[in-house]
Amino acid sequence: MSDLEAPLRPKRKKVWVDYFVNFRWIIVIFVVLPISFTLYFLTYLGDVRSEWKSYKQRQKKHDENVKKVVKRLKERNPSKDGLVCTARKPWIAVGMRNVDYKRARHFEVDLSAFRNVLEINKERMIARVEPLVNMGQITRVTVPMNLALAVVAELDDLTVGGLINGYGIEGSSHIYGLFSDTVVAYEIVLADGRLVRATKDNEYSDLFYAIPWSQGTLGLLVAAEIKLIPVKEYMKLTYHPVKGSLKDLAQGYIDSFAPRDGDQDNPEKVPDFVETMIYNRHEAVCMTGKYASVEEAKKKGNVINSVCWWFKPWFYQHAQTALKKGEFVEYIPTREYYHRHTRCLYWEGKLILPFADQWWFRYSLGWLMPPKVSLLKATQGEAIRNYYHEMHVIQDMLVPLYKVGDALEWVDREMEVYPLWLCPHRLYKLPCKTMVYPEPGFELQRRQGDTHYAQMYTDVGVYYAPGPVLRGEVFDGAEAVRQMESWLIDNHGYQPQYAVSELTEKSFWRMFNAELYEQCRRKYGAVGTFMSVYYKSKKGRKTEKEVQEAEQAHLETAYAEVDEPAD
Known about the structure:
There is one protein chain. The protein is α+β, with helices and mostly antiparallel strands. Helix content is about 35%, strand content about 20%. The protein is built from 24 helices and 15 strands. A hairpin with a 2-residue loop joins strand 10 and strand 11. The longest helix has 28 residues. The protein starts with 15 loop residues before the first helix and ends in an 11-residue tail after the last helix. The C terminus is likely disordered. Keywords: Membrane, Oxidoreductase, Transmembrane, Transmembrane helix. One of its GO terms (biological process) is steroid metabolic process. It is found in: Membrane. This is Delta(24)-sterol reductase.
């Protein structure tokens, strides 16, 4: 869409919040960054202290903490106490949606002690971890062993529990699926205080398939066993520039990891890691990675780039240089590659601190980056929070791979947000229909990237201020999100619920499938104990009366509009 074709919008009158946001960097530099650095350091010391303990000691402490959770649940009086939720403060969550469900009367269960790596089993290739273990912690333990989780989400602070109960993706998801697809067992405390272990082939297999995307509304996750894979010391990363229309950029992205001959399971043709960043409507850089040994990386002529040093250019800006100098290859230490977006929070750091990408800031104060998202949320009031909901977009659109071009054109037309992040992932055909599922009959089409057992999807990450906001024009953020959600429903797409959602309950269950989820809610006693997933995701303040009415409605009916299976 050219500038002449861009919709003409009236100028927006500035209010006091605009000026506060423009100068918020003062609070970030003098308050948020120092406290963030201190918290990161103290957390690191706590993690190291935990790692000094034997697995047996950690397991003993874990068992004690589980008993406390069970005891606490059994203390609840359903007729007097509110619904169960964790004792974690609302602002601590990394997600951007309001955690308003905790404003209703609720019964808190403290899970703050569940942040230990319980076991790394090299024979079974399994990591058994507690739900508050984060990505930075797990890679610090596994990568020196030349092991890693099959899917490692990019930001250090993202926790295992959040990635399982919510949504998690990485550049390896085109091979292994979403984070929850790599879990082999869940340890769950149910509403009645029972501790159960759910796997895909035991008596709790229905619970195993229902846990992902349930937002912790079926039970309390206390541990998970997650698939490990062997890795090498470096990532050989190729930066390939693509230019043309948005459809051209989409096809270039698809071709970077999906062979046109359909040989999607061939490791010789498919890279280990994939991501693409679209910088404007005509330019993108596709990045593909292959694990490499120390010996290969240090061969004469190869370039090694430690991208996580505080003084280095931010990763997305470094990748952008391929648009000028053409395709190039470099070797990045594996753990640094995993967390390449942490320091600048993708490109959100540019909005938080507009000058933080400048060389003088990186060298002098870059070591304080990044600010903790939880502290950024804790230091904003209701007015600031509402401002960001209207004037800022943090959304992920999960769409079938063949519809990526259409999704890019929609975002450009309705939001004008750049850069955009593209990351593919498999959506598996499972024995039962879960909350998210591939298009019926996809295996008959066998489009580029698909296999007979999984449809290839793509996360279109939309994170930044929309073009109209940057130009000072009127922009209705809530309406834009509603339109996005409608487009996703029409195109068999999904919206991860860490983000701000405008979905009504009926629309929510048009997007997601309720059947298995509701069955498990009833079977395992979650109704009347845990809030339903829609109400937990719903935007706005929740009153106790609303919650009770919603629970009663779920007892009577589900709102899903189930797709008819293909012939």
